[in-house]
TrEMBL record, chain A:
<feature type="domain" description="Trs120/TRAPPC9 N-terminal">
    <location>
        <begin position="232"/>
        <end position="306"/>
    </location>
</feature>
<dbReference type="InterPro" id="IPR013935">
    <property type="entry name" value="Trs120_TRAPPC9"/>
</dbReference>
<dbReference type="GO" id="GO:0048137">
    <property type="term" value="P:spermatocyte division"/>
</dbReference>
<feature type="compositionally biased region" description="Polar residues">
    <location>
        <begin position="345"/>
        <end position="361"/>
    </location>
</feature>
<dbReference type="InterPro" id="IPR058565">
    <property type="entry name" value="Ig_TRAPPC9_Trs120_1st"/>
</dbReference>
<feature type="domain" description="Trs120/TRAPPC9 first Ig-like">
    <location>
        <begin position="648"/>
        <end position="757"/>
    </location>
</feature>
<protein>
    <recommendedName>
        <fullName>Protein brunelleschi</fullName>
    </recommendedName>
</protein>
<dbReference type="Pfam" id="PF26251">
    <property type="entry name" value="TPR_TRAPPC9-Trs120"/>
</dbReference>
<dbReference type="GO" id="GO:0036063">
    <property type="term" value="C:acroblast"/>
</dbReference>
Automatic annotation (TrEMBL), chain B:
<dbReference type="InterPro" id="IPR011012">
    <property type="entry name" value="Longin-like_dom_sf"/>
</dbReference>
<dbReference type="InterPro" id="IPR044760">
    <property type="entry name" value="TRAPPC2L"/>
</dbReference>
<dbReference type="GO" id="GO:1990071">
    <property type="term" value="C:TRAPPII protein complex"/>
</dbReference>
<dbReference type="InterPro" id="IPR006722">
    <property type="entry name" value="Sedlin"/>
</dbReference>
<comment type="similarity">
    <text>Belongs to the TRAPP small subunits family. Sedlin subfamily.</text>
</comment>
<dbReference type="GO" id="GO:0048471">
    <property type="term" value="C:perinuclear region of cytoplasm"/>
</dbReference>
<keyword id="KW-0931">ER-Golgi transport</keyword>
<protein>
    <recommendedName>
        <fullName>Trafficking protein particle complex subunit 2-like protein</fullName>
    </recommendedName>
</protein>
<dbReference type="GO" id="GO:1990072">
    <property type="term" value="C:TRAPPIII protein complex"/>
</dbReference>
Length: 1320, 138
């Protein structure tokens, strides 16, 4: 509406002469009944100011007047802004073409301006003078000076008017009635005045009508259409035919007037009559006119709502343009009748239906009521023809029903039926078409007919009429032709023929710029072209176009290309670029490869002028061109969100507890909730990103164009937390998939929404969102959690780096490495320097752990970190450092592992003791005679095979010895070889740091990195064999070790506090080490523990019972390992270390020596207590009393003991002579059986000894405890011994005795007694 | 004798279009596209009484140069034939004959098991036959 006024004003000022016979494309059938009034703005255009006044005037388009006989008349007024004077000439033909009234609206500030306004009004009056009945001028003066009170303004309008009229006077030649208003006046009475004006027009018209109706039939003159004037020159007007023609024409004229004057019924019958009359004389043109008149009159009664649709229609078209055109393509126009158009345009009239007129009244009420009020006020002053007092308010509108109502009840009988109207129009058009000069009339009739058909919902007829318009040969300017196309477009759109509409719209667009046109109007062309998008199933939003994928690609491409041309010619290169982008994006699949590359090059050229960017463009007319993005150029094959590098990856400090359910995995899903969760999480990334840490997304791109494609400024597109994307520039080779890494840094914590990426290619910036990438199974976005910033550290070690990284688990978190070579037993340390690299965050939490390829127990011995020291140094400030000392000890097994049993399988039954002894003897033959040797004690050896075989039955064979070995690495046979001391050992270890700080620490996150250690252990010393010998004092024993130096250097060995020995490289030597015996308490404790354990085992399984020997042997082994530390030093270097005896394996006899004896000896000779190393002297032949007292110090009773006393002579060369039958005699038995020695019980044995020859004698006094079976045998053998125990006792012993009783023990008196026998 | 023959799918997507004057192809496409409104309208009208449905839709519209005829199959595939307006000798019966033949050709083409309904017709055999039909030598 506003635009129309603006247009009107611009036209009005010019006052240009319109072209001849310009069709009025807006006309509808109902306009036949309207009084034509020219509403024109004059003076300098001030549309905004006067807009309100225009609206007010326009609103008064209908009044109701009571005629002289008191019948109500409904009068309609049509306001036009322009009217060609020639059209008045057709006024005789169709009276509604005559301009009856004139209203000018103007604004002035000064007297001269007012004069000008008056002049323009007068000149318009003159121009249309021939037909004009009345005119009005509305003047808006300047605002009142501020002195004026507001009350005055609100006062009676006449007062204000007078005031203005006082200030400014109209020129004397100005005769028209003028209304003066202040600029800001509310013009409350304007509508009333226009109503007045309208009724004035009516009365003049009514008088004309009456005049015409009273004319005598034989006196009427011939009415002529303008072009007919020449045709009738010289014809006999008095002929019967012509008379009839005259009468018919006058009748038709009267019908027109009646129609205008609101007498529709009269008009109908008059038209019918005229039609018959004129048809009889063959006056085709006028027959057509009567037919058209009939249609108009009928339509007026049948379709009164058309008046409303007409006024509202302008808005509706605007609204339709605003909504998305593609969505409502299947036009529901048919479904809901013509009234739909009303409902679409006006909410208040939404339910208006042709059958529900009362609602229409409400929609009309605003204007009607104002009209009625003005009429009532006006009546007092105006008409004097109101006969009755009661109806003095002659015209009321709102109360009485609109004439349309009556159609249901009493429509005139001669009215045309709905379907007849079309036929009549067709006939009229055929009649018109006989006259070349009636082309305008014909065109208008066709338009009116199609409008009626629209109302009747007969689209095919509409199409027919519209199609017909094209055939009418009307000489018209190109602009007119375009206008015609646009009107046709509009009508086609109304019936939902979008394609037809688009076809004509495009034609109109092409007409605007067709070749040869003097002033091609690219702007209009562009606008129309854009308008025709809908018809070709296109829309401005590329997403929607791709979504719908409808329409004819060839046409769409052509249309868009034309549009691009138009935009380019307009000089709007941004638009051209946008449309080209649109074309590439939407029609890519519909183009051949050559076309694709051509278009791409074109786009490049266009964007060189104006770069494309993904922002909506707004045209001058308010149309918004949505952004077009080249989402598939380059084509994204896949997109992967990358986790941070392993050593920077955030972890939970405390590992969340796994679900405590009994099942680790269940295939059963109880409800759909689970599945929905999975679905939801599809775009959820499992890992986290860290605030302020550079993150990465990898995209695989393919360039579908046959030339190199440069993509610049490629960034990630994100939502959610602030994210700083780093631009990436790349050149893509044709058709080669390329990986591109896009980086960025999240600045905040929270959820980061990765939507895609933006590119800048072919001069166009595009936002390529995943959800818009079709044909690939991308989720619409990826969601990554960003956790608070974590500190970063760098780690250095004081050791050299290794050449190769380890192949241990999680090697990816290793940040640095260190290598170290140590001899077994050597210690070293490594300083790890940790620098907090973050600029702001303190390092508040460090946790470390060591992983290696050796067992945990051993690892703890090798690596040690002082955790407390680290804790004390926390937190580390930003850029601060912390040093961690890692102690490394080259732990190894120095004791030579078991020689393989197979070596001895042939010779001995694999007993360890035998093995060690054979080994030992081989050593001893090499000439270490200085050491006391047990090889020469065959007495002890003699028992051994039996013992060993017995033992092996319990423990399940010789290999089980390996099982009880204490070597930490010993898992079966692998252990010894994995960490033996004679080979180089490689240990790989990782020191892992978990560190955190700042907010992330409170959130429970940390990072992990590791230092990889490569530790090489070289063999140093090794103990190849060992034995235990009794020492000089009872509280000690000698541990004799064969130690070999496996290094290539001379080694200095410090084996006791004071003793050193040098060993050449690859040599070995034997050292004795005095060691305190293992105390009895420990033995007792070990025994108790072992008993308990065995009991338990017995109860449970009765298998694989441990022998006490194992426990005791273990105990002794530990005892030795604790006490004996052998320090070695490689001479000439500062390399030193400690060799430990951990894992030494002792045989039974060794164990007995190692542990303190459970027996306490008290020997007295000649009634004097023998002290160790005391020399006892006696004489030959003299009886000497030897008294041996035994006490059981242990907690257990000892059974089946055999005390034996033997004298021998030690030749001190390794030979001992036991055959002393001729030299010494003992009274009483020399083997005394003691069946049971209770705890703390003492036994005393006394015998007499007589030496026959002088010399040095030694007495070996020992106590042998025999195992049960043997003791039984011995009991039977030793008849001289003390009474044997009963069987029952033996049985009970069998069960109650602990298992150690089943083994033979030998407890010797140490040192042996030495007796020197002298001659008397 | 015919100027242009077009086959249009049930969703109004073009399946096939040929013309004796390739230079005017685009222009003809515009015309054929514009004719679809009327075809749809006529299809709607015919919907009410399926048994009496006439496949031949008759003259859709005519322009200065062309007359455009329509035909719709039971599967809503539309045939459009454009005929030169100057060819006054052509009678409507002949147009019907063209449509009948075209329908047969189309049926044959669609019977190809490798043809996916809704895709554009690329069969050479069909094309040759239609060209013949168009030139009136069929």
């Amino acid at each position: 509406m506003r635009a129309a006024v603006g247009l009107m004003l611009s036209h009005g000022a010019g006052g240009m002469e319109p072209a001849m016979s310009r069709p009025d494309y807006e006309q509808s059938a109902l306009h036949h009944s309207c009084l034509l009034v020219l509403l024109r703005g004059v003076g300098p255009s001030r549309a905004r100011v006067l807009q309100r006044a225009f609206d007010k005037v326009r609103r008064v388009n209908h009044i109701r007047v009571n005629d002289s006989s008191g019948h109500p008349r409904s009068i309609w007024i049509r306001f036009v802004h322009d009217h060609p004077v020639e059209h008045n000439d057709w006024g005789d033909f169709q009276t509604h073409r005559r301009l009856l009234g004139l209203i000018t609206i103007g604004k002035f500030d000064s007297q001269t301006e007012l004069n000008e306004l008056c002049r323009q009004h007068e000149s318009l009056k003159v121009r249309y003078g021939s037909t004009l009945y009345e005119s009005r001028a509305i003047f808006f003066g300047p605002d009142e000076p501020p002195l004026e009170t507001i009350g005055e303004v609100l006062g009676p309008p006449t007062a204000v008017g007078r005031r203005l009229q006082d200030e400014f006077t109209t020129p004397s030649n100005f005769k028209a009635q003028a209304f003066f208003y202040r600029e800001q006046d509310s013009c409350a009475d304007l509508e009333a005045r226009i109503g007045d004006f309208a009724s004035a027009l009516f009365w003049v018209l009514e008088s004309r009508r009456l005049e015409r109706s009273r004319e005598k039939a034989d006196k009427v003159s011939l009415l002529l259409a303008p072009f007919e004037k020449r045709d009738f020159v010289g014809l006999d007007m008095e002929s019967r035919n012509n008379r009839k023609r005259c009468v018919g024409r006058v009748m038709k004229n009267l019908a027109d007037l009646s129609l205008q004057a609101g007498l529709v019924d009269d008009a109908l019958s008059l038209y019918h009559n005229a039609n018959e009359t004129l048809r009889s004389v063959g006056d085709s043109l006028w027959v057509g006119a009567t037919e058209e008149g009939l249609c108009a009159a009928s339509a007026m009664l049948l379709y009164p709502q058309m008046r409303e649709t007409e006024t509202l229609h302008r808005n509706s078209s605007l609204q339709e343009a605003g909504t998305s055109p593609l969505k409502n393509i299947p036009d529901k126009w048919r479904a809901s009748d013509a009234t739909k158009k009303v409902s679409a345009s006006d909410a208040t009239a939404s339910n208006v239906d042709s059958c529900q007129p009362q609602q229409r009244v409400t929609s009309n009420s605003s204007s009607c009521s104002s009209v009625s009020s003005l009429v009532t006020t006006a009546t007092n002053s105006s008409a004097s023809d109101t006969p009755t007092t009661s109806s003095s308010s002659t015209s009321t509108i709102s109360v009485t029903p609109i004439p349309g109502h009556q159609r249901n009840g009493d429509l005139p009988g001669n009215i045309l039926k709905a379907e007849e109207i079309t036929n009549y129009y067709r006939k009229a058009i055929i009649n018109y078409s006989k006259y070349r000069h009636a082309a305008t009339i014909e065109t208008e009739a066709a338009l009116k007919a199609s409008r009626i058909c629209i109302e009747q919902n007969r689209p095919l007829d509409v199409a027919m009429f519209l199609q017909n318009i094209l055939y009418i040969n009307l000489s018209m300017s190109e602009a007119e032709r375009v206008k015609r196309f646009e009107v046709i477009t509009d009508l086609y759109q109304q019936i939902g023929y979008q394609r037809k509409a688009a076809f004509f719209q495009r034609l109109a667009a092409l007409k605007h710029v067709q070749q040869g046109s003097q002033a091609p109007d690219w702007n209009q062309s562009y606008r129309l072209m854009l308008g025709s998008f809908t018809g070709y199933r296109l829309c401005l939003d590329p997403l929607e176009v791709i979504e719908n994928a409808a329409g004819w690609p060839a046409l769409q491409i052509d249309l868009v290309q034309t549009l691009i041309t138009a935009a380019r010619r307009l000089g709007h290169s941004a638009l051209a670029t946008r449309h080209m982008t649109f074309l590439l994006q939407t029609q890519w699949d519909n183009m051949s490869p050559t076309e694709q590359s051509e278009m791409a090059v074109q786009l490049q050229n266009l964007s060189a002028q104006c770069e494309g960017s993904p922002v909506p463009l707004v045209l001058d007319n308010g149309t918004v061109i949505p952004p077009a993005n080249l989402t598939d150029l380059p084509y994204c094959l896949d997109l992967q969100v990358k986790d941070l590098p392993a050593h920077l990856r955030p972890q939970r400090i405390k590992v969340a507890k796994a679900d405590s359910g009994p099942f680790l995995f269940t295939p059963i899903h109880f409800n759909s909730v689970d599945r929905r969760d999975q679905k939801k999480d599809k775009n959820k990334i499992a890992f986290q990103w860290v605030q302020n840490d550079l993150s990465e997304v990898t995209v695989r791109l393919r360039n579908p164009l046959p030339f190199e494609l440069a993509v610049t400024d490629m960034r990630l597109l994100t939502n959610g937390v602030v994210f700083e994307s780093l631009p990436q520039t790349l050149v893509l080779q044709p058709h080669v998939p390329t990986y591109v890494a896009l980086h960025g840094t999240p600045i905040e914590t929270g959820q980061l929404d990765l939507q895609g990426y933006s590119t800048h290619t072919l001069g166009v910036k595009s936002n390529c969102r995943l959800k818009h990438m079709r044909g690939r199974s991308f989720p619409p976005n990826y969601v990554v959690d960003v956790i608070p910033a974590l500190p970063r550290i760098s780690v250095k070690t004081s050791l050299p780096q290794t050449a190769t990284f380890s192949n241990m688990n999680s090697a990816d978190i290793v940040v640095t490495s260190a290598s170290l070579t140590l001899y077994n037993g050597e210690s070293s340390s490594c300083t790890i320097t940790i620098t907090n690299e973050s600029a702001t965050l303190p390092l508040e939490h460090i946790e470390f752990s060591i992983n290696s390829n050796v067992e945990q127990e051993l690892q703890q011995k090798i690596f040690r970190i002082d955790e407390e020291a680290i804790k004390a140094n926390l937190p580390v400030p930003p850029q601060g450092t912390i040093e961690i000392i890692l102690d490394v000890y080259a732990e190894a097994d120095f004791v030579c592992p078991q020689p393989p049993a197979s070596l001895h399988s042939g010779a001995a039954p694999g007993d360890y003791g035998a093995a060690s002894l054979t080994h030992y003897s081989s050593v001893s033959t090499s000439g270490h005679a200085s050491l006391p040797s047990r090889v020469g004690s065959p007495h002890q050896r003699r028992n051994e095979p039996k013992n060993s075989s017995f033992r092996s039955t319990i423990s399940g064979g010789p290999p089980s010895l390996a099982a009880l070995s204490l070597q930490p690495g010993g898992g079966g046979g692998v252990g010894p070889s994995s960490l033996g001391s004679q080979y180089n050992q490689h240990i790989e270890a990782q020191v892992r740091f978990k560190y955190s700080g700042g907010e992330a620490l409170t959130a429970g996150y940390c990072r992990q990195c590791a230092v990889s250690f490569n530790l090489e252990l070289l063999p140093s010393a090794q103990i190849t064999s060992w034995d235990v010998l009794p020492a000089e004092i009872a509280s000690q024993f000698y541990l004799v070790l064969d130690i070999s130096n496996l290094t290539a250097q001379e080694m200095s060995l410090n084996y006791t506090d004071t003793k050193n020995i040098l060993i050449e490289a690859k040599e070995s030597c034997r050292v004795p080490i005095p060691v305190d015996r293992c105390s009895l308490e420990k033995v007792v404790a070990a025994r108790a523990a072992e008993v308990a354990e065995n009991l338990e085992r017995e109860l449970c399984f009765r298998t694989q019972l441990l022998s006490f020997n194992d426990a005791l042997s273990k105990l002794c082994s530990i005892h030795i390992a604790e006490r004996v530390k052998i320090n070695w030093l490689l001479t000439g270097t500062d390399i030193q270390g400690i060799a430990s005896l951990r894992g030494i394996v002792l045989s039974q006899s060794m164990v007995d020596l190692t542990a303190v004896s459970p027996l306490e000896w008290a020997i007295s000779f000649q009634d004097t207590l023998v002290q160790p190393h005391n020399e006892i002297v006696c004489t030959v032949g003299q009886r000497s009393l030897l008294s041996i007292q035994l006490a059981n110090q242990s907690l257990q009773p000892l059974r089946n003991l055999v005390l034996s006393i033997k004298f021998y002579q030690d030749y001190l060369n390794g030979m001992e002579n036991y055959n002393l039958e001729t030299r010494v005699a003992i009274s009483g038995p020399n083997r005394i059986a003691i069946p049971l020695l209770e705890k703390n019980e003492q036994k005393k044995h006394t015998c007499s000894v007589i030496f026959f020859t002088p010399g040095r004698f030694k007495a070996s006094i020992e106590c042998i405890s025999n195992p049960q079976k043997q003791s039984e045998q011995s009991a039977s053998l030793l008849t001289r011994s003390c009474p044997a125990e009963t069987e029952t006792v033996g049985q009970s012993v069998m069960f109650s005795s602990s298992y150690d009783e089943q083994q033979a023990h030998v407890w010797k008196l140490i040192p042996p007694i030495e007796v020197t026998v002298v001659e008397q | 004798m015919a100027f242009c023959i077009a086959v249009i799918g049930k969703d109004n997507a073009p399946l096939y279009l040929t013309t004796s004057d390739m230079e005017q192809e685009l222009d003809l496409q515009y015309h054929v596209n514009a004719a679809l409104d009327v075809v749809e309208e006529k299809c709607l009208i015919g919907k009410g009484a399926p048994e009496s449905k006439e496949l031949y839709l008759g003259l859709l519209y005519s322009t200065e140069n062309h007359k455009i005829y329509g035909f719709v199959t039971n599967t809503r595939v539309k045939f459009i034939v454009v005929i030169d307006s100057s060819n006054v000798a052509l009678r409507e019966n002949e147009v019907r004959a063209i449509f009948r033949n075209l329908h047969l050709l189309y049926t044959d083409a669609v019977c190809n098991p490798f043809y996916i309904p809704g895709e554009s017709l690329t069969s050479k055999k069909f094309d040759r036959a239609v060209q013949k039909l168009m030139s009136g030598t069929a």
